[in-house]
Amino acid sequence: MPSYAYILVSLALFFLGTAGVLLRRNVLIVLMSVELQLAAGTLALLTFSRALGDQKGHVFAFFVMALAAAEAAVGLAIVVSVFRTRRTANLDEVNSLKG
Amino acid sequence: MFFQLRLIPLLPLLGAAYLILFGRRHSRKAVHRIACLAVGAAFLISTDVFLFWFPILYQSNGLRDLLGTWFASGDLQVDLALRMDALSGLMCLVVSFVGTLIHIYSTGYMAHDEDYARFFAYLNLFCGAMLLLVLGDSLPVMFIGWEGVGLCSYLLIGFWYGETANASAGKKAFITNRVGDLGFLIGMVLLFRAAGTLDIPALLDTARAGSPSLTATLWWGQPVAFWAALFLFMGAAGKSAQIPLYVWLPDAMAGPTPVSALIHAATMVTAGVYMVARLGALYLLAPAALAIVAGVGALTALFAAVIAFAQNDFKKVLAYSTISQLGFMFVGVGTGNFAGGIFHLLTHAFFKAGLFLCAGSVMHAMAGSGDITRMGGLARRLPFTTWVFRVCWLAICGVPVFSGFFSKDAIVAGAFATEVFGPRLHWVGPAVGAALLAAALGTAFYMSRLYYLVFTGECRADLKTREHLHESPVEMVGPMVVLALGALLAGLVGLPPAVGGSYGDLVGQWLATALGPALEVSHSLEWRVMATSTAIAFAGIALARLFFRGGVREPARRFVAAWPRLVAAVRGKFFVDEVYHALVVRPLRGLAWVLFSIVDRILIDKLLVGGWTVLVDRAGRLLRLVQVGDVQRYLAVFAIGLAALVYVMARPAAPSEVRVRIEGRSAVVDLGDGVADKLEYGFDFDGDGLEDRTGAVASANWRYSQPGHYHLRVRITDPRWNTSRTIERTIDIQ
What we know:
The complex is a heterodimer.
Chain A: H1 3-23, H2 27-52, H3 56-86
Helix pairs in contact in A: 1-2, 2-3
Chain B: H1 4-22, H2 28-52, H3 54-59, E1 63-73, E2 76-84, H4 86-109, H5 116-135, H6 139-157, H7 164-195, H8 200-208, H9 212-215, E3 217-219, E4 222-223, H10 224-239, H11 248-251, H12 257-266, H13 271-278, H14 280-284, H15 287-308, H16 314-334, H17 338-365, H18 378-381, H19 383-397, H20 403-417, H21 428-455, H22 463-468, H23 474-489, H24 497-500, H25 506-515, H26 523-548, H27 554-562, H28 564-571, H29 576-623, H30 631-649, E5 659-663, E6 666-670, E7 680-684, E8 693-695, E9 699-703, E10 708-718, E11 723-733
Antiparallel strand pairs in B: 1-2, 3-4, 5-6, 6-9, 7-8, 7-10, 10-11
Helix pairs in contact in B: 1-2, 1-5, 2-4, 2-5, 4-5, 4-12, 4-17, 4-23, 5-6, 6-7, 6-12, 7-10, 10-13, 10-15, 12-17, 13-17, 15-16, 15-21, 16-17, 16-20, 16-21, 17-19, 17-20, 17-23, 17-25, 19-21, 19-23, 20-21, 20-26, 21-26
């Protein structure tokens, strides 16, 4: 299969993820959408890595996975903490920084 | 060259700096030793230079000591230079000599004062500034000294600043002098504009040559020289306490008495006279200005003498007397009789300083009071003071043989004989001469009144003061005796030709190189003036004796009863202070109030300061609407921004250079190597909107069919992103 097919999948994943981040109300879904974006990025890295014959893309894919794990840990901890104080996981109800 | 000259002002200035910084650490003895030594050394160096270079001072422009260029700007170059010639040498001797004597006197007079070191520091600073004023070779250097003595005057008048009246008197002196100094500055600028220099010798050469730059008409049909001279005289009138700026001098008596003697009698107040004499050649170019100087001088001499009739404070009488005598000096210089004016300055320095020191001695004995209605009969208790006072009194009254007689006559005779005013203003000379004779009568009267009220009759003070009466210590009496000798003998250096023959007028001959030849006065006029003024002096003394011998007598009481309103007006100093208060101080206060309440409170506080806070507050209220607190909306904005950024960054980079080469009718456009590859280019050479050349090459050429003015447009496109950039040029084809 040509590389551009993978890139198209990556793009589709990224836009789906972006749409999820921007539009969904539930924090957990938003976090999952962020994971989707990261997966899209990883896929693009791997595709270009193979197409250009450069191993650096693979290395970065591992970095992204480590980062995603850390992000999930911190993000979920924040979600738990927010839920404890506010009894809600809806993003549009968490707006105490409103000016 | 002649570097001793710089030591003359420098030593007292260094003394002042040292005493201000470290004076408090030293004992009184050390303080006055330093101060007296600094001024005494300045006097000795002046004397040394004066005697050693005697012929040069006499015959030429004198000695010059150049310390360097002070500043240079455009055509203006001002050197920090000192010059001693016949005139400044003489002044230098007078100032440093009287200064030294008064330093010595002060060691006794101020012995019990707490701020001993501060007093001597100021006194030293004054002597340094005064010597700088006298020796300054250019007007700006002179002006530094001029301002320096003004500062010292302010500091010393308010020396006992604990009392508000003293501090106000200091401020009054300073502010009144500012008015005059503005005139000095304007005069300086006018002279620079006309003559292109501020060096005094160069200015005088320009004036002596009658240069058209100075005689050209400036305003109201009067030449530049007139206006410059008039504005400079304004400065002189401030410093030398002439109408209309004399009001500060009587109040200046709030300072310690040695200060009154040194600054407000012998030296600083004569600076104006010195300046006019120094610039004599300039004044001679403008007879109208001379007439104003002489007129103001005569008016002041008469006016102040009349006010002195009814003052009851020892020092106030002397203050009005000083104003009056300064008027005499201005008549001298104002009638072109510069040597006469300077001669009177010299003798006045002796007898007036002597009189002030007597006042100090008397007040010392009277526990600080100067009220002459409480004095009387002091001759028995203060014998030395009385003798000194008698000599100085007879000198100022103009009794023959005493110094004041000769110097006053030189001025009066000069006023009658002068030719400087020209035919149209010729009447000015005799008029001011007559006014001076009247003022001389007044002088004899008020000075004799002072003598009789203070030293004759019975003491009118209370018992405690009477028991306290004592002669002053030797360090006070010593300088007084020296000044009395000066008051007695100083006249002998300026004998009129009628008395002393052709070599009698030493001062006039000495100053001839610096100030021009002395005024020619016929012997018969000389004798007539001398006879008249002798009669006038004795008449004044006799009248005062009749009125005041041994206390206020019956004729005086009858006079007051007959003219109550006249006496009240004189006693109230003709209410000049009150008029100035109504005409100047109150309107200025009103203006200040308007500025405060409108400009300051409304414009600055409300609009400029408050306005900005309101603006920032409103802007904050508006901008807080942007902060919605919703993470997802922030993210959406972020995403849109990022997309915009990517679009902008993805445009082809602008070429680093666009070269257009024209050869005859053909033009070659080359975008250079700075442009990335894989771009497409379109060239429109003739500005018709259609592209004449396209392709992937960054250069193209075109041949025009006819000459003209063409609009060139180059399009650069990146086909991967479908973005483009356009560059335009206009070219001329011959």
